[in-house]
Write a structure and sequence with these properties.
Elements: E1 4-9, H1 14-17, H2 31-47, E2 53-56, H3 60-72, E3 80-82, H4 99-106, H5 108-116, H6 128-148, E4 152-157, H7 159-169, E5 188-192, E6 198-203
Parallel strand pairs: 1-4, 2-3, 2-4
Antiparallel strand pairs: 1-5, 5-6
Helix pairs in contact: 2-3, 4-5, 6-7
Amino acid sequence: MSGTLVLVRHGQSDWNLKNLFTGWKNPELTELGVQEANTGGKALADYGIKFDIAFTSDLKRAQDTLKIILDNVGQPGLETIKDQALNERDYGDLSGLNKDDARAKWGEEQVHIWRRSYDVPPPGGESLRDTGARVWPYYLTEILPRVLRGEKVLVAAHGNSLRSLVMVLDRLTKEQILGVNLATGVPMVYKLNADSTVASKEVLGDMSGAH
């Protein structure tokens, strides 16, 4: 019997609110972000799942989201592994810049390509493919074996690190993944087959808040 993999994007951060490229920078959650994490945690508590282990990134907004979720499901002391393999995509020279200012500097079309293309990185940063190149091996070696052993695994991470995982799990093409946005704080519950393919996927909450 294979286990369950739950993916959650962190709640809104201060820099999401200010429309800044965040990447590997470390802003705090906003009040709304804390609320989103609590809502996601309550949805998981209502779902009735208990986790065997949690994974998160090296960045505070994902770690804080995870802590809030674990408090809500009554597992505040759960073993947690933190690794920068799960970090958000590195936006390089764009990190810390307002998205409108970046458009004024490089042009609307160029910034759109950096944000939404699959394999064109911003200057000094990572493309979605580059992000996947560190997320996928980590998933295959550290996370997937636990799920296949029947464990229930929670991963709290970021929009792009999770998009690269969703791309593989949902078998999306590099064109299809470009249109996928993950809502903040909304858990996605995957049940996996013994061959690591997806048996079922449930989204616990409202995906309309994706941005």
